[in-house]
Specification:
globular, 1 helix, 26% strand, 70 residues
């Protein structure tokens, strides 16, 4: 993948756009359609590639448990 290529995938119950070489530009979305539209706009403006990983969303957002270590 090249810098600024975007991969859209389901992750922890959300859809995310992961930007190659620029993780600070990666974003998450509530639904697949919103994520795909944003990725297409992002890649069109930069002339980069968008890849959609077809996966079944879990519908559950899981956050890591807080640490109880002092």
């Amino acid at each position: 993948m090249a810098r600024f290529d975007v991969t859209t995938r389901s992750k922890n119950g959300q859809w995310v756009n992961e930007v190659e070489g620029a993780p600070h530009l990666s974003r998450s979305f509530r639904d697949k359609e919103e994520a795909v539209q944003a990725a297409r706009e992002f890649t069109a403006s930069r002339r980069t590639r968008h890849t959609l990983e077809e996966t079944e969303p879990t519908g559950v957002i899981t956050d890591p448990a807080p640490s109880t270590d002092p």
